[in-house]
């Protein structure tokens, strides 16, 4: 008996050791993820002890003191909301009121599509969540499709469609020599893509270049999409924040709608209402009729369920109050115009000062570009020098 007990003890001990080794090795193959090219800049900035450091890489609006700004319309909406609502879950599709007001912004107050109930739409986790939800929808219902993404684009676009397992192709967009739009190459890529391809388009204030097609160019793009039967998915993260006029900034989308396209659209209130941390957005898909819209919305909700179940409440209430109240909406339109005009003024000041300092280079692109981001044209080596010698932080692609 003693011998049997000893053998059993050794077996158990050996088994436990093997189990411990097995458990300790579960995550040994995990390597540190590469730093996000945008968020990594902020990390480096915060770690720099220099009192003269400047961060021009952050994708968020700042005042003249470099401080975050909360809009007065947002503060007033918060005052009205405080203590008036419960904390229950929203439906999977989010706040119906917020979605309805958001669709009016993108598609127009008197849109026939809205009257005919042809738009399937759900509240999403800001623009990122809306893009990801659509990417998963594309994968599920068009499993053999791929998506064309502009070069360059917001770096997270590639991550979103990659993790949704949608194959990616790229199309020409930016012309480095002119620091403007490479329209001829863009059109060639649209014509050469297989019929019925998916294209990711920036509705306005292209990130990171600040380069947008003209109205006439948008009309040509829309026409060629019609010829080829392509699907346009618009990422509209800066409506109102580009020109100061939400209607003007939605012109690209309206052109496609006039031409009869059934588009998809991601909207975000991070920039134009300063609701960065509230993660308020919307995903919409134009359908053939109301019946199809009901079906598409049900599938979008089904995709959202295992991802995050339902979207957050507070930010949706803020947006609903601002857009649903004429006075608050008027105040928002005034404030977003002030932000947009200040950005335009900063562009002018930057260009003027570079020219006054005697730079032999042309800086016209700084004022020709629009929106929150300026594609400066600086090389990665020049950016490194700015950071290492002058404590000025920006992404290595030269985006300010």
UniProtKB/TrEMBL annotation:
Note from the entry: In eukaryotes there are cytoplasmic, mitochondrial and chloroplastic isozymes.
PROSITE patterns: AA_TRANSFER_CLASS_1
GO biological process terms held by the UniProt record: amino acid metabolic process
EC number: 2.6.1.1
Record keywords: Aminotransferase, Pyridoxal phosphate, Transferase
InterPro entries for this protein: Aminotransferase_I/II_large, Asp_trans, NHTrfase_class1_PyrdxlP-BS, PyrdxlP-dep_Trfase, PyrdxlP-dep_Trfase_major, PyrdxlP-dep_Trfase_small
Cofactors: pyridoxal 5'-phosphate
Catalysed conversion reaction: L-aspartate + 2-oxoglutarate = oxaloacetate + L-glutamate
Pfam annotation, one family: Aminotran_1_2
GO-annotated cellular components: mitochondrion
Source organism of the structure: Escallonia herrerae
Entry's family note: Belongs to the class-I pyridoxal-phosphate-dependent aminotransferase family.
Record's protein name: Aspartate aminotransferase
Complex formation: Homodimer.
Lineage: Eukaryota, Viridiplantae, Streptophyta, Embryophyta, Tracheophyta
NCBIfam families according to UniProt: PRK09257.1
Enzyme class label: transferase
GO MF: L-aspartate:2-oxoglutarate aminotransferase activity; pyridoxal phosphate binding
Residue stretches making up the Aminotransferase class I/classII large domain: 52-397
């Amino acid at each position: 008996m003693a011998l049997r007990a000893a053998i059993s003890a050794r077996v158990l001990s050996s088994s436990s050791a093997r189990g411990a080794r097995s458990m300790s090795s579960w995550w040994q193959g995990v390597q540190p993820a590469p730093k996000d090219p945008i968020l990594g800049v902020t990390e480096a900035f915060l770690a720099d002890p220099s009192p003269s450091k400047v961060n021009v890489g952050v994708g968020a609006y700042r005042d003249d003191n470099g401080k975050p700004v909360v809009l007065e319309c947002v503060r007033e909406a918060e005052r009205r909301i405080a203590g008036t609502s419960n904390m229950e879950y929203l439906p999977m599709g989010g706040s119906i009121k917020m979605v309805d007001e958001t669709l009016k912004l993108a598609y127009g107050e008197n849109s026939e599509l809205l009257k005919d109930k042809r738009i399937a739409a759900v509240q999403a986790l800001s623009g990122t969540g809306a893009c990801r939800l659509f990417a998963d929808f594309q994968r599920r219902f068009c499993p053999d499709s791929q998506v064309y993404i502009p070069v360059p684009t917001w770096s997270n676009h590639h991550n979103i469609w990659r993790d949704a397992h949608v194959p990616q192709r790229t199309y020409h967009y930016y012309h480095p020599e002119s620091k403007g739009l490479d329209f001829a190459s863009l059109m060639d890529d649209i014509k050469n893509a297989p019929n019925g391809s998916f294209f990711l388009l920036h509705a306005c204030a292209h990130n990171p270049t600040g380069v947008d097609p003209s109205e006439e160019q948008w009309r040509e793009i829309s026409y060629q999409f019609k010829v080829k039967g392509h699907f346009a998915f618009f990422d509209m993260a800066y409506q109102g924040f580009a020109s100061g006029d939400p209607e003007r900034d939605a012109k690209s989308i309206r052109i496609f709608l006039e031409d009869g396209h059934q588009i998809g659209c991601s909207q975000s209130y991070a920039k134009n209402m300063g609701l960065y941390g509230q993660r308020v957005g919307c995903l919409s898909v134009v359908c053939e009729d109301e019946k199809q819209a009901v079906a598409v919305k049900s599938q979008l909700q089904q995709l959202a369920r295992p991802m995050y179940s339902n979207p957050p409440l507070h930010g949706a209430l803020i947006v609903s109050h601002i857009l649903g109240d004429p006075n608050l909406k008027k105040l928002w339109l005034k404030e977003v115009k002030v932000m947009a005009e200040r950005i335009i003024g900063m562009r002018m000041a930057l260009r003027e000062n570079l020219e006054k300092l005697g730079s032999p280079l042309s800086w016209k692109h700084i004022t020709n570009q629009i929106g929150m981001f300026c594609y400066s044209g600086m090389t990665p080596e020049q950016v490194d020098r700015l950071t290492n010698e002058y404590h000025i932080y920006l992404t290595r692609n030269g985006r300010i």
